[in-house]
Amino acid sequence: MTFTIRPLQDDEYERAAALTTRIDPRRRDTAGAWRREDADRASAPVPMRRWAAVDDASGEMIGYASAWHMRKGKHRMDLGVAPGFRRQGIGDALLRTIIDALVASDAATVQARASDEDGDSLRFYERRGFVEIHRVRELWMDPRTADLSPFDDLPVRLEAEGIRFVTFADAAADAEFWSKMTDLQNDVLRDWPDPDPDPELEPTSEAEVRRFFEWSWLIPDASFIAVAGGELVGYSGLGGGDREEARIESGPTAVRTDFRGRGLATALKVLAVREARRLGFTRVRAQSANPAMIRVGEKIGFVPGIAEVRLLRRLGSSASEGQTAPGVLEPARRATPSS
User: What CATH number should be reported for the domain holding residue 270?
Assistant: First the structure.
């Protein structure tokens, strides 16, 4: 068969979004969401780019790929080929298109992701110079049936030790809230699992922290902050998800370095799950690449699901030839109390 790789056209977004769901039924991509994403990234150093693979004979869309800028020279990508059209060079052609475009823009790395159950995709990436960095494990819970009674005394004990629990909404009333959140985030980021880590960690800015805790996904009245002596020492978010499916996301959760090992992450997670129950959600999903946070989730009743494998490839002059580009990548081995 013959096929053509070309930029995705505006009137093809619906077809491409439907294709991604056919390739992976867990995805919920929509043309509207993609167009909003394109608009949001229009001013980025490298704008969002999308491509389609089209069967020359039938005109059917048989593959889709995209690439977008994350920070500095770091990028992420998405790639999929329709069932029935694999192992015919379409995936390689899409990957070459992505790599060539990124190399031309002086990108340094590109990150791909695949389910740990998708052995074909993992082998595809590994044979083309990608290296696994870490795995983000899904955890699921029905808050209606979760037995949280063993943790009833935990917040009380911590409050006796001088730690208060407040909602994001209440904490944000403090004029210094965002500067305090930035200080907390810079503390926990020192060992936060990063799929594309820098050799030396650069402090995050207040503007970046504000974007990370965007109110459009986080529910301020159902997400919690731990406070000790006026200092913010931990948090756990609740938001996102899908209200029609009664599903919500728990996380991220993190605790300041000096306050770890006291049950603070567990207490924050329990408070968030109780809020999910109160709000009527029947499914709560958490995600973490951190073994310590996975253990916290399991302890309060979350059940592990699939993992998203994050793979990284350095880019260089040999990238378009399908060879491993210059540079050595070592998988990150980090175990931290943040997710």
Answer: 3.40.630.30
DSSP 227-277: EETTEEEEEEEEEEEEGGGTEEEEEEEEE-GGGTTSSHHHHHHHHHHHHHH
pLDDT in tens, 284-323: 999 999 999 999 999 999 999 999 999 999 997 444 444 4
The verdict on 107 and 178 lying in the same domain is no
User: Is position 109 within any domain?
Assistant: yes
State both tokens at 225. Answer: 């902050």
Segment 315-325, tens digit of pLDDT? 974 444 444 33
Count of helix runs (H) and strand runs (E) in the chain: 10, 12
Residue 128's contacts (CB-CB under 8 Å, 6 or more residues apart) are 92, 95, 313, 322
Phi, psi (deg, nearest 5) at residue 157? -60, -45
The reply to whether 210 and 280 lie within a common domain is: yes
- Do 230 and 155 belong together in one domain? yes
Side-chain half-sphere CA neighbours of 160 within 13 A: 6
Q: How far is CA 100 from the centre of its chain?
A: 25
Residue 107's domain comprises 3-135+309-321
